[in-house]
Amino acid sequence: MKGFKVRYIVITALFLIVILAWEMAPRMGLVSPLSLPSFSNVMASFWKSILDFSLINRTFLSLQVIGIGYLVGGLLAFGLAGLSALSDGVWTFMKTLIAILDPLPAVALLPLAILWFGVGTSAILFTIIHSVVWPMLLNVYNGFKSVPKTQLEVGKNIGLSKFEIVTKVMVPSAFTDMIVGLKVGWSRSWRALVAGEMVFGATGASGGLGWYIYQKRFFMDTAGVFAGLIMIAILGIVVEYGLFGLLEKKTIIKWGMQTSVA
């Protein structure tokens, strides 16, 4: 408990030092306020955007689009990983697709997505699904293949079907790798969304946080740009330590597959 308190005291102190340096650098003329506004100005812009609901509305739009793309990409990844784990031929084909498509950044595919689906949410959803499915498929498959053969043999001996072996034996055993895949997919979905909206304005006026940041940059509102980035950072912390942290606590930590570092 003492070590836990010391660690968080050190983290808090470091954050305070960074915030103080951030506040003083533009005030002392070390950097231009246009390129780096003071922390107080950034927070004033952040709270102003919260109170007039402009930032909140953009955030909900982003979460809605990411939620759909993340869900579809995740379902595809889990289904393909299950088929790959049960058939070497399927995995050989999937491994080739991963080698070709996974290195392609979503923003590079966005021009094609716009040609195929037009300017709007559909193009962004395509890039999010692309960003999610390949890394998640690779992580889930690696988790499935790491399941001890004795567990698979026991499942076969007690009469489980192939589907039941996947759902009742392989999924619980591979849960650590699956959570890693979920985290990678979540981070990549944000990159696809923000990059698409900022670089191409693919969703126009109905866009989310990426479009919000793009607008603030266009009007040279640097404090507003930082406000949008802060909102993305807050969402990342909430999902990492809230959603994924709770999921790990209720599954792999509870099952003894991983120890808590808190």
Quick structural overview:
With 262 residues, the chain is an all-alpha fold.
- State the helix count: 11
Uncertain spans? none
Q: How large is the radius of gyration?
A: 22 Å
Mean pLDDT: 84
Strand proportion: under 5%
Task: State the helical fraction.
Answer: over 70%
Largest sheet at a glance? none
Give the strand tally.
0
| H/E topology pattern | HHHHHHHHHHH
State the separation between the terminal residues, measured CA to CA. Answer: 9 Å
Shape: globular
Give the class from helix and strand content and strand pairing. mainly alpha
Question: If you had to describe this structure to a student in words, what would you say it looks like?
Answer:
The protein is mainly alpha-helical. The protein has eleven helices and no strands. It has helices spanning 2-27, 39-51, 54-86, 88-101, 106-117, 121-145, 149-157, 162-173, 175-199, 209-218, 222-250. Helix 5 packs across helix 6 and helix 7 (149-157) runs antiparallel to helix 8 (162-173). The longest helix has 33 residues, at 54-86. It is globular, with a radius of gyration of 22 Å. The N and C termini lie close together (9 Å). The model has no long low-confidence stretch (mean pLDDT 84).
